[in-house]
Design brief:
three-stranded mixed beta sheet, Citronellyl-CoA dehydrogenase, flavin adenine dinucleotide binding, alpha+beta, FAD, Butyryl-CoA Dehydrogenase, subunit A, domain 2, AcylCoA_DH/ox_N_sf, globular, about 400 residues, 9 strands, 3 domains, four-stranded antiparallel beta sheet
């Protein structure tokens, strides 16, 4: 992927925003267990950062996904994982289907204010019994006159206590599980919505995560995104960009953690020399940086192939799944090794290695677990186990 001056300018702009507007407050937000989403997103919206790939007719910049990748990578300079995740939900999870398939009226009502940062949004797909298994969701929406009536619950909803609305995946019929689902915009101040449960997480502490209940919640039929029954397909389509976003947003944070660990081990003395003087330590740090650069190369290559449009959807899904798998695995390796080199200091709650260790563990779970990524990759390689013939 060739980076232009425009790519670099966007990257520097986002990095500057992170360093000036986010990092000075991260410690407070981590302790509070929530970030001021409306305040931060309004600032980002004023800078044009929330609609980089969205249509210009609705306030976006209309750029290709390589620019969004630079946005995601620059967010990696944030000194926690929770805030970039909350921002990524706004830009790359809750709004892509609306931008692509929503009616003009729906995009005017909901997409435009999200791009301006005037509304905070969530993606409501996962349920207590259906995380990576999207087809297994149980929440329903039945037609009643001009409304859908929604019943069920959603689990692990990022931005969930602050969101103005959620792009919600529901079952709109009793047909086949891949053909009976729809995406519906649900205002979260609607009667019957309950979302007081803020979940207490291992990491991503500055990101508020809610369990949301729907009890006979009425929303107008016009809040349907695209076609009824196409929700599963829409959700699968946007997973590729979501996984690229996750991979890109991990790169610079890992580089920064390695650099901080180099600085710390260089000044920490043990047995008459700095820790960094030990061959094992500096060789291991060199190895870790090599792994991060391999992640960068794979992510850039996949983005280029995605934009070129010459590969089949299955091949793109395979590459994006490799990126998602790689960032999770590399993050676990880097943060664990760096924490070890910080010694007892690394076991302190506010230590950068400790925070990264906690935050990045989610990567191998959320947005499709590692095992799901491996299944997609194996399918593209045509090496899935063959079904056994029934015994005679």
């Amino acid at each position: 992927m060739q980076l232009t001056q425009e790519h670099r300018a966007l990257y520097e702009s986002v990095k500057s925003f992170v360093e000036q507007e986010l990092n000075p407050h991260v410690a407070d937000w981590e302790r509070a267990g929530i970030w001021p989403a409306h305040e931060v997103l309004r600032k980002m919206g004023a800078l044009g950062l929330l609609g980089i790939t969205k249509p210009s007719a609705y306030g976006g910049q209309g750029l290709d996904y390589s620019y969004q990748l630079m946005f995601a990578q620059a967010l990696g300079h944030c000194r926690c994982g929770g805030v970039p995740m909350g921002i990524g939900v706004q830009t790359d999870m809750a709004t892509p289907a609306l931008a692509r398939f929503g009616s003009h009226e729906l995009r005017k009502e909901y997409l435009e204010p999200a791009i301006r940062g005037e509304q905070v949004v969530s993606i409501a797909v996962s349920e207590a019994g259906a995380g990576s298994d999207v087809a297994g969701i149980k929440t329903t929406a039945r037609r009643d006159g001009g409304d859908y009536v929604i019943n069920g619950s959603k689990m692990w909803i990022t931005n969930g206590t602050q969101s103005d609305w959620a792009c919600t995946l529901v079952n709109t019929s009793e047909g086949k599980p891949h053909l009976n689902k729809s995406l519906i915009i649900v205002p979260l101040d609607a009667r019957g919505v309950e979302r007081q449960t803020k979940l207490d997480k291992l990491g991503m502490r500055s990101s508020d995560t809610a369990m949301i209940f729907f009890d006979e919640v009425r929303v107008p039929v016009r809040n349907l995104i695209g076609q009824e029954g196409a929700g599963f397909t829409y959700q699968m389509l946007q997973f590729q960009e979501e996984r690229l976003f996750g991979a890109a947003s991990g790169i610079d944070g890992l580089v920064n953690l390695i650099d901080e660990t180099i600085a710390y081990t260089g000044q920490r003395q043990a047995f008459g020399q700095s820790l960094l003087d030990n061959q094992y330590v500096h060789f291991r740090l060199a190895e870790l940086r090599t792994e991060v650069e391999a992640l960068r190369a794979l992510t850039y290559q996949t983005t280029e192939e995605y934009l070129r449009g010459e590969q089949s959807p299955l091949q793109i899904a395979m590459l994006a799944s490799m990126c998602k798998l790689k960032v999770g695995r590399v993050s676990r390796e880097v943060t664990d090794a760096c924490l070890q080199f910080w010694g007892g200091q690394g076991f302190m709650w506010d230590n950068p290695a400790a925070r990264a260790y906690r935050d990045t563990r989610l990567i191998s779970i959320g947005g499709g677990a590692d095992e799901v990524m491996l299944g997609i990759i194996a399918k593209a390689m045509n090496i899935l186990p063959r079904k056994k013939k029934p015994a005679a």
